[in-house]
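Summary for the lay section of the report: proteins are chains of building blocks that fold into shapes. Here we show the chain for S8 family serine peptidase and then a coded description of the shape we predicted for it.
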Amino acid sequence: MLRAGRRGAAVALIGALLFVAPAARADDVRGGQKAVIRTLALPEAWRTSTGAGVTVAVLDSGVDPRHRDLAGSVREGRDFTAGANPPGTPPSRLHGTYMASLIAGHGHGPGRKRGIIGVAPGADVLSVRVILEDEEPGFRAFNSAERFENVVARGIRYAVDEGADVINMSISKELATREERAAIRYAISKGVVLVAAAGNDGDRRIDGEFAPYSYPAAFPGVVSVGATDRRLRRASFSNWNSSVLVAAPGVDIMGAGPGDEYWVGRGTSQATALVSGVAALIKAKYPDMSPPLVARALAAGATDRPPGGYDTATGFGVVNAARALTEASRLAGHTETAAGAQAQDPARPVAAGRAGPVKVVQRDERRVTVYAAIAGGAAAGSLLALTVIFVLVRRVRRAHISQEA
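The coded shape description reads as follows.
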């Protein structure tokens, strides 16, 4: 997970936590994806939708458009980090390529049976660079220069204006800003589905009761994603709190890297990318479906639901693409839309519903009020909505945030 920005705007790319290593060969990769493909019920889902016609914006460290499993599917958008690296420094683009492949990788070779197959192989990717990875020479400058403070907010608005249907944000931070809240409100008002990582600080506890809230995941209207382990239980690193809507596999996840490489890692980043892919499948089949209804379909179609239907560890359960599409078909007749007015007042929740360790300094001299909301989903046609608001007011002088991607 990478963190970027300053004065309360530090954002982390939640990538391959603890372990990242190149995979052996391209023909080994698809076998390594079997567990994820089975858990998400992708073969069944692909009979209904492959994500064709949908654009998923990947707000990240950049995507390699020449990777054989992504070639022809990636449009390179604006680089909001421009000027942070010394002139002529190429971006590493590891984390962004990794996430994009999980969303829209289409494989390669005969029948495209080799390499990474993403959740929505028919979707297109819009790469929006809003972060530097820790090994890039401009990383420290990027995280201290005021001109990069609101790159994520700017990236969201840019992606919306460029026609994104879904925005993947495998990024996290502890404090919200007014600009980010406004950008998310703008995206929802335009019908764009926002998916973000719940965070990799699951071993930290606030008052012994829950893990820290992370933004943009905890903003009202954003689909907050936790990670599960091989047994489909909350992964030990995954944040647990009432912002978590759903979960997805996040341990030993195969993905693509720049230069036709393959990687395996763990984190809520990977889980988030998988859920963004499912959202793309839904938007391809039902392009006019509002963000709240997409979130509802994701939650209502989840499997491995916790006792009682919801908990702070995995939300409403593990996302299942086939079941989510079935729920979306039931909801498609509804006229409910994403009302931007719901997000205009941050106190009103919307009811709808690392590749390497990084350390960044976050500063904020102001009092910040942040609101975390969890919007609920429906099961079997019911319109059950669960809304939990957590209000945190704190004055932050200097906070050090450590992240492992």
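Put simply, here is one thing we learned. The chain has eleven helices and 19 strands.
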